[in-house]
Amino acid sequence: MDNLANLMQGFADLATFDALLWSIIGVLLGTFIGALPGLGPVAGIALLLPLSFTLDTVPALVLLMAIYQGAMYGGRISSILINVPGEPSAVVTTFDGYPMTRQGRAGYALSISAIASFVGGTIGFIGLIFLMPYLSAVGLRFGPPEMFALMLFALVATSGFGQDNLLKGLVSLGIGLLIAVIGLDRITGDVRISYGTVLLWDGVSFVAIAVGLFGISEALALLTERERPEEKLPDIRLKELIPGLQDLLNNAGSILRGSLMGYVIGVLPGAGSTIATFMSYSVEKRLSRTPEKFGAGADQGLSAPEAANNASIGGALVPLFTPGIPSSAITAVLLGALITVGLQPGPRMLETSGNVIWATIAGLFLANFLLLIFNTAFVPAFTVLIRWSQPYLISFITVLCIIGVYFDKLQFFDVGVMLVFGILGYFMRIYRYPLAPLILAVVLGPLLETNLRQSLLLSANSPEIFFSRPISLTLLSATVVVLLLPGLRHVWRRLRPVFN
Fold first, then answer.
1. Is 192 helix (H, G, I), strand (E, B) or coil?
2. Given this model, what pLDDT does residue 419 score?
3. Which comes out higher in pLDDT, residue 301 or 243?
4. CB 130: neighbour CB atoms within 10 A?
5. Is the pLDDT of residue 316 over 80?
6. Any idea what DSSP says for residue 183?
7. Degrees to nearest 5, angle at CA 288 with 286 and 293
8. What is the phi/psi pair of residue 191, to 5°?
9. For residue 226, what pLDDT band results from cuts at 50, 70 and 90?
10. In whole angstroms, how far apart are CA 413 and each of 97, 255, 418?
11. CB neighbours (10 Å) of residue 247?
């Protein structure tokens, strides 16, 4: 009850014109930033951090948190409309969101994803309020062995995206891991597979890879189609833009599961929203009675990852607000903002600066509500945009991809990388190799390697460290189960007639 009273006081402290104004500005800027490939919440917060220095403490933090949330919301817009993920965690949104657009359901996809994002964000913030002291302790128990086991489980679970042909899923995974080792070795500092250019010392740009695999490959697919894309474009009618009660009930379980998974994964150091979205998608596909619909416009394939994406925000703020430890690049930037405005992050921050923190948490709820209103209200405008831009869609996608990738690091080299991965993605689509394992391996590969080597350094190169710790042992056991499950299902189908 104390936390609830603190939250109410936070809303009272938030009830000023400045706080409301900067919250509105933050969600609008964040949504725009999130929809542009190559930017995302980290770049958005970093770019607008100097602006927050001119504001009072509460409005400054409300602005930054609103940008954070808005960028997480905004990434889904370009993913759904043109198959170009605005930021890394929006990659999964392309799997079913864009097929909905091709089917003439862009408005519905935008609406159901906005509602799922709102519910996920709300559940994440409720968890932030009531579970902060408990889950922060759990998150701190994840050392290198536990993180390695978690990353391995996530990678193996995503091989389910290639269930029709497990070998193709594993090949895609292997390509991603090979790409992930390019650049400087994080332990020894040695340069690996750089082909003599310093431009690869930092590895291959994730933005270039993601935009190429999904955006450029889609432009190539549209260009080489014998027939024009479907002209069944969304009608701007209220009943088609707002999901009905039955639609919400059909998605309720997926949204709840995605929210809980996103929140828990968000708490873990180094995990983040990208892993949460991939994991929630994999779980929903495995639980579904019609897994063949995933990738072809399944509601649950869109709603669950979007809920997980926004629920991870509340989870990521748990270690930031309690022990004062950033769990991701985004929260590291936010940690710098907290210090800049005069707060002292650490276990006692809630005691020493509780009024500011609770007002900031209240601002999270406010921004979440504003995002639901704005994103729902803008759906007709987005559907009109996609209708008018249809004849120019290939050019629009290509130009947006080039601009986004170039401005990520201001290097034309990355534009070339994007084109290479665009061609790779196009041929992977033709031969039905799943893209999801590749892109997740690129994200998790460096973390997987670093945590593996740190674990072996801690144990003097003994693998026993992975089996002597309960959390890592549990995760490794779950990984083995996921690997064996397809084979066990096949054996059961062969033996079932015998028992019957």
1. strand
2. 92
3. 301
4. 13
5. yes
6. E
7. 105
8. -95, 130
9. very low
10. 30, 40, 9
11. 16
